[in-house]
Amino acid sequence: MLKTLLATAAILAVPAMAAAQTVGFAQIGSESGWRAAETTLTRQQAEERGIDLRFSDAQQRQENQIAAIRSFIAQGVDAILLAPVVATGWDSVLEEAKDAEIPVVLLDRRVDSSEDLYLTAVGSDLEHEGEVAGQWLVDEVAGEDCRVVELQGTTGSSPAILRKSGFEKAIEGHDNIEIVRSQTGDFTRSRGKQVMESFLQAENGGAEICALYAHNDDMAVGAIQAIKEAGLNPGEDILVVSIDAVPDIFKAMAEGDANATVELTPNMAGPAFDALAAYWKDGTQPAKFIQTESKLYTAADDPMAEYEARKDLGY
Amino acid sequence: MNPRLYPLAATVAIFLVACFLCWLQFPYMLSTRVAGNLLTDNAYLGIVAVGMTVVILSGGIDLSVGSVIAFSGVFIAVVLRDTSLHPLLVFALLLAITTAFGAGMGALIHHLAMPAFIVTLAGMFLARGAGYMLTIESVPIQHPFYDLIQDAYWLMPGKGRFTLIGALMLASVLAGMILVHRTRFGASVFALGGGEATARLMGVRVARTTVGIYAFSGFMAGLAGIVFSVYTGSGYPLATVGTELTAIAAVVIGGTLLTGGAGYVFGTLVGVLTMGLIQTYLVFDGSLSSWWTKIVIGALLLLFILLQKGLLRLSSGRGAAA
């Protein structure tokens, strides 16, 4: 009897549920501009799809994220998005979600739990980002000799390691391109500028540098300033390619100071919601990793419009 | 009613009103699931807050506990990773270390006549640094015994989970209540909170009591560290930054006088649950910024400090009249 009642209730509930699914989003915090943009875009994407988004900011603390996920489960949400602050320690709470039959989608970062505890993970392939940047340079110089200086991210961090190896992979076999100097700029603008200044001094005032590859846009923006102060023209005398696609690099591109950037999209929620929609509809199991597009932007892509589109996202 | 009970009564009243308001908006918040979550999610905080209550009752403060929790998690994770010791043995080892650490701080505070604030601040840096010395990464704990205790819960009617660590928290509160309100040590703590000179006149062995108080706080921080490691299944040196302040806030919202000498361990439990309830409400609502937790806790703290000042004036006014 109870079973029939429940089944009827479930059937009755389906059209209503389709109208407004509830999704809980356990976000890490708002430590960087990129993350703030991710939050803004997740809200926008949810609104566009008529999803009722419950948002929780964990203020960088795992215990807050675990508590938030538990509360989402208690509430009986239809799905949970999780951007995990660390990789470890999620097994028991993910198992609870699984027991409650609530799909969990990981955004941007991964966890070390078993794969059957989450529906899928949406993220960028960091090595591929480096490859796209390297490929652009290969095509741009078209066989001419090019001495490259590289600004690395924080030593030992996974983006620094993978963006470096990706770039090296792309220029492999092109003997005309050579990385002559490579140092860490710690992903910051000020260190990027400082290290670029030392590069310029070491390379005959910059005359022997053909291109700069920076692991993120912030360092590139700092380096552009250093190049200008050295009396050179960034974007022409020294080609500038970097990764992330934050608003300021588009501004630099519009002014002709930067040449190319590879986007690390903050829109991780879009593909996540698409995967969830398919899962809700007929139980389609997505692949365990959904790679977001690492799109290349150059001066030909109307950088001013890209800047306008991005500047209000919270970067 | 005894005026000493007023702050506790206010704490309980605020908690009940908060529950009622939550229930009005989200009826599902009064379910065994949410109740079970409240106990589980705040287990480590409740345990460490019991230790903090004893410290504050004596007129002291212990700023090291957040770091000690993080150190405990890292210690357990690293020892379990690198050796084949049984977790229970590691727990015993850890509790011995943290208790000795607390006792050492207590001895310094008493013998050097240093403010507890300074000594435990040094302890905070020491413990955090020691955690980093062991590892700078987050280390997962993979041991069958951990799987066992992580899955140890009683499924309440309504699918709520009454977990082992939640039960441990309630047991700690009970033990704290007995220790503080029913033993000679507890009476000495209260006497010390009234002032060291008076306590001495009353025949309290100040040195022993002070060392005992901080040793107890260290023990509870170690226990909270164990619970936290069960809760997250890993050890991370960056974990529980600032938890000492959350614990102090819970103690004060629980009605304990920040200057020492008056308060109840039970109030601390209610204080912890009130803070957990605010957090749960914000997640249920899902549109408010989670920083509201801090704002509400700040407002509650202010309210209780004012309440305590008012009570103090009331009682001293009565004393003058008599």
Shape category of chain B: globular
- Assign the CATH class of chain B: Mainly Alpha
| Strand percent estimate of chain A | 15-25%
Gap between N and C termini of chain B? 19 Å
For the report, how would you describe the main beta sheet of chain B?
Answer: 2 strands, antiparallel
* Major interchain interface with per-chain residue totals: A-B, 32 and 36 residues
Count of spatially separate domains of chain B: 1
Subcellular location (chain A): Cell envelope
Keywords (chain A): Signal
Signal peptide (chain A): 1-18
Pfam families (chain A): Peripla_BP_4 (PF13407)
Keywords:
heterodimer, A: alpha/beta, Rossmann fold, six-stranded mixed β-sheet, B: 322 residues, ABC transporter involved in vitamin B12 uptake, BtuC, two-stranded antiparallel sheet
Please sum up the structure shown.
By secondary structure, chain A is α/β, with parallel strands linked by helices. In chain A, 46% of the residues lie in helices and 19% in strands. Residues 4-18 of chain A have low confidence and may be disordered.
Commentary on this structure:
The complex is a heterodimer of chains A (315) and B (322). By secondary structure, chain A is an alpha/beta fold. Chain A contains eleven helices and twelve strands. Helix content of chain A is 46%, strand content 19%. In chain A, strands 2-1-3-4-5-11 form a six-stranded parallel beta sheet, sandwiched between helices. In chain A, strands 7-6-8-9-10-12 form a six-stranded mixed beta sheet, sandwiched between helices. Chain A starts with a helix and ends in a 5-residue tail after the last helix. Chain B has a single domain (3-311), classed as Orthogonal Bundle (ABC transporter involved in vitamin B12 uptake, BtuC), CATH 1.10.3470. In chain B, a hairpin with a 5-residue loop joins strand 2 and strand 3. In chain B, helix 4 (65-82) packs antiparallel against helix 5. The longest helix of chain B is centred in the C-terminal third of the chain and has 30 residues, at 292-321. Chain A binds chain B through residues 24, 52-59, 61-64, 66-68, 70-76, 86-92, 96, 112, and chain B through 26, 28, 31, 33-34, 37, 40-41, 44, 138-140, 150-151, 161, 228, 231-234, 236, 239-241, 276, 279-280, 282-287, 289-291. Chain A: Residues 27-279 form the Periplasmic binding protein domain. Chain A: Keywords: Signal.
